[in-house]
Amino acid sequence: MEVLKCISIDDDPLMIRKLEFFCHEISWLTFEKGVNNPVQGASAILTLKPDVIFLDIEMPYMDGEYLADWIQPKLDQFEKKPKIIVISSLD
Questions:
Q1: Which of 10, 39, 56, 71 is least surrounded by CB atoms within 10 angstroms?
Q2: pLDDT digits (tens, 9 = 90+) for 26-64
Q3: CA 50 to CA 33: how far, in whole Å?
Q4: Please, which residues bridge with residue 86 across strands?
């Protein structure tokens, strides 16, 4: 089975740690990086070329929807386009 590389972009460090824990529990996922800044997250996407992106929808300065729209044309250049999973921890 192919192992999928994952990254998480979320302003909440606890959510990043939770996703990292869950990825370690699933044999076909590997957690590459957690980033709490959307701009650094965009850079991580372009550098690491993950298979799966866990993206927080509500972040300060740049929400996940804007980041997904902005990064989309760049993802088209990847050999294998990553899947974006939108997450939220609204109370």
A1: 39
A2: 999 999 999 999 999 999 999 999 999 999 999 888 888
A3: 10
A4: 55
Which pTM does this prediction carry? 0.91
CA–CA separation, 89 and 12 (whole Å): 9
User: Cα dist. 3→6, 10, 19, 59, 65 in Å?
Assistant: 10, 22, 16, 29, 27
d(CA 2, CA 57): 28
Distance in angstroms (rounded) separating the CA atoms of residues 80 and 39: 22
Q: Enter the tokens of residue 14.
A: 């606890």
Give the CB-side neighbour count of residue 18, counting CA atoms within 13 A. 10
Query: E strands of 1-91, at which residues?
Result: 4-9, 29-35, 52-56, 83-87
Can you give the length of the chain in residues?
Answer: 91
Spatial distance between the Cα atoms of 41 and 88, rounded to a whole number of angstroms:
16
